Amino acid sequence: MKIYQQIIRPTLVLVLIASLVAAALALTYNLAGVEKVANAGYTPEQLAEYAAVALPEADNLTQKTVTPSTEEMEDSLLYVYTADNGAGTALVVVSKGYASDGITMMVGLDTEGQPVGVKVIKNAETPGIGDKVCANEEFHQQVADTIREGGEPDVIAGATKSSNGIIGGVRTAVSIYQTLEKEGALA
Amino acid sequence: MSFTKEFLKGLIRENPVLVMLLGTCPTLAVTAVAQNGLGMGLATTFVLLGSSVVISLLKKVIPGEVRLPAFIVIIAGFVTLVSFLLQVYVPDLYDALGVFLSLITVNCIILGRAEAFASKNSVAASAADALGMGLGFTLALVAIGSIREILGSGSWFGIDLTFGVLEPITLFTMPAGGFMVFGFMVAVVNKLSGYRISKKKMGCEGCPSRAACGGKECADQ
Hints:
Oligomer: heterodimer
Distance between the termini of chain B: 31 Å
Strand order of the largest sheet of chain A: 1-2-3-4-5
Number of domains of chain A: 2
Radius of gyration of chain A: 23 Å
Mean pLDDT of chain A: 87
Largest interface: A-B, 25 and 26 residues
Structural class of chain A: alpha+beta
Mean pLDDT of chain B: 84
Largest sheet of chain A: 5 strands, antiparallel
Number of domains of chain B: 1
Order of helices and strands of chain A: HHHEHEEEEHHH
Number of strands of chain A: 5
Shape of chain A: elongated
Low-confidence stretches of chain A: none
Order of helices and strands of chain B: HHHHHHHHEEHHHH
Number of helices of chain B: 12
Strand order of the largest sheet of chain B: 1-2
Low-confidence stretches of chain B: none
């Protein structure tokens, strides 16, 4: 009797509660359609807004599913989009700024794999310092242009790490593009 | 005890954040802007209300030996439910709250109310207590969030107040500013209450967990 009261009954009650909670959550997950939202990527409106800056010549972006084959892709690559009119490719990458995984950005690449534009989608950089770099579209364009021409972009004084985050993100995108191209994943 | 009294005590007199100093981590982490404070407060209120009602209903069924794991499973269930709903219907808030949404599970206000109140009182009284505590938490978060947003970002609930003339004090959106505003708020509440709260807080009488141990821990010392 003591064993039942002290060990078996509490165990059964806890198992029962946990099972009921799990069942209720599974039901909510399916009814609310969480899976669809979690894997949806960006809405068409958001994509159009980002692409207007990152890859202005593209008409419509279509998402491509790629299997990450390198560590670089595993760490940095979120989504791959190709332009329907063949204007190029847009990669969404996560780059390390002052915060690790601090900057999520879309990098537009032309048909040669060279950067044409950058759009910062989300950043967790220091308010008032690093996030100004993330909002500075003139700087983003300058980084893309300089890297395309084979130069070394200048950083913004006082926010070196965030600037390097943008520059690093563009370089990562270029490098991932080359890997994808070699694998024929973009065809 | 009347339900109105149970409800009102959480708003000011036993405010979980400004008087009992519980749940400081989410308080400081999400209040850089008022809107996130409001969202966090309402999410927590929902979890608090749901878990208090369920725990109060099950208080005779849950054996004392597994009471804490059972409470945590129920609380975690409600937190996951809220995070599913926010992810689907309010994705912006879901992104803004980030990891602190899941961390509502270990918010000591919720487990504290479950242990100290809901597991010992009727369902209606527990619901009144949970609503009062939740709204008290929300009020404190919105107040701290408003001050930090107005001073730190020059806006309130996203409405620009600087008119392009004033430069906001960025410090207030950062952790240090959060601690400062929090400290001042606690001081002001203490002053307004004529230090009644902090005097009462000294010793066993004022301990928020007194209801849980019934003064036994103090008697042992």
